[in-house]
Amino acid sequence: MVRDGKNSVWKAVHTGYTVGEWTYYYNETYYYKTVYMSNQRNYNGVEHHTLFQTRDYVPYTYYFYRTRTFLNYSTATVDYTVSQNGEYSFTFKNGNGAESKMTISVTNIDKTAPSSPLIVNTPAGWSNDTVVTKLSATDVGSGVAKYQYSLNNGGTWTDCGAEITWSADMNQNVIFRAIDYVGNSGGWSAVWIGIDKKQPTAPTITARNTAGQSIAAGNWSQYALDLNITRNSTAVSGIAYYEYSLNGGESWIRLADNISKVTFAENTTTDVRVRAVSGSGMKGVQAIFKVMVDVNDPTKPQYIGKNTSRVIASGVWSNTPLTMTYSGSAAFSGIAKYQFSYNGTNWYDCNSAGAVVFQPTFNTPLYGRAVSVAGRTSVPTDLYNLRVDTVALAEPTITAVNAAGAVGSGQWSPTDLTVKIGSLNAFSGISGYEYSTDGGKTWNKQEIYQQVSYKTACGQTKMCTFFLISCRYRQ
């Protein structure tokens, strides 16, 4: 509270009824007392203020005559609103007409929105790692305080700085705006952000050879093989291209967009790996197909025919079972088996050792060949004339005649005796006959007319010689 000169006019500046410190002057002689206002009343234009002395807290009552209307003591601040920047002058007058002037410069009014932000994304397209968004905007007033982005077309906004790093998978249009220091929001700028860190799914691989046969992975093909790649991999960022590897993934060959197959025309055993590469550069899950191709015939086999006692050359008869053995062929895929044929058209498998046993009777051409694991066949062996007859001959019939007629076994003949061996058929034919006069200890060949003639030792004296004759066939 301040007394205004010598006038009985006192001007009090106080906001509300909150207790505050006042200082008063009297008779131009300064007496300093600090008092606290506790209440105020107004009776007929006279304001009554109850003051309390701070020293002894003895109450004093002062009466002030109010000659004009002053601001209510409860309001000491007048709000004056300006709408634009500039210099504003104010004149204040007290009760006796004295003036006080003040000029205030206002520079903090900003009604201009910031510019729409410029956006730079690194990288600009799909990423399989992170995307960094850098923003720049201008504001001619209070300046850019912050940026905001929205993922739902402006439905909600999130504060951000001038640089944002995105790391989660996303395929999103993002809206940005700048906010100045007084809260003005600028225009929107939009950018698409794509992050795809997931591997594309594996493609499908099938194989068919030039003979039209479907070949499963890991199976041999005896013809050139086409590996067909179905472009059915999926990825959020899409599929950029496909590639394959023939060396375990050390290096990759890109498939042209209009090609979906790889051809293997030469002998090979290769694990072919195929994968898709996404739009973000992620390498896909690999599909692995084992290619096994053998396009060459096995080499011609060797062969040997043997019976239980000796090697049997082509065209020679064997009277015991004959074993024909094939061996020595080679093939890229290996030798699966050997086969034999009597006519070069119909083929039959040998046993696992490449052998086949012939009995009891054969008289036929014989061929052999090798079969590779891939199914290719060698050229046949040279012709082998197979001749086998293991059927035992029947006991021969023996008849004896002299000039008078037949002579029974054990009967005496007074004249020369002719012994005849009966004819007999055999699969391999009869090559001759043999006879023995010593009980089969030694044998003599006889090949003329199937007979053996003996003269008795009988003479005029009727003396005779007796012996036993045995005969057999020879194949």
Brief synopsis:
This protein is mainly beta. The protein is 0% helix and 44% strand.
Q: Can you put this structure into words, describing what you see?
A:
- With about 475 residues, this protein is mainly beta.
- The chain folds into five domains: about 1-65, no CATH class; about 120-195, Immunoglobulin-like, CATH 2.60.40; about 205-290, Sandwich (Immunoglobulin-like); about 300-390, Sandwich (Immunoglobulin-like); about 400-475.
- The protein is about 0% helix and about 45% strand.
- The protein contains no helices and 38 strands.
- A five-stranded mixed β-sheet has the order 17-23-22-19-20, with no helix packed on it. A five-stranded mixed β-sheet has the order 25-31-30-27-28, with no helix packed on it. A four-stranded antiparallel β-sheet has the order 3-4-5-6, with no helix packed on it.
- A hairpin with a 6-residue loop joins strand 27 and strand 28 (about 350).
- The model is unreliable at about 1-75 and about 445-475 (pLDDT under 50).
Distance between the termini: 161 Å
Radius of gyration: 64 Å
Provide the spatial order of strands within the biggest beta sheet.
17-23-22-19-20
Level-2 CATH architecture of the largest domain: Sandwich
**Count of separate DSSP helical elements:** 0
Unreliable stretches: 1-76, 447-475
Q: Assign the CATH superfamily of the largest domain.
A: Immunoglobulins
Number of DSSP strand runs: 38
Report the major sheet: 5 strands, mixed
Mean pLDDT: 79
* Global outline: rod-shaped
Which range does the strand content fall in? 35-45%
Main structural class: mainly beta
Helix content: under 10%
Query: Which fold does the CATH topology of the largest domain refer to?
Result: Immunoglobulin-like
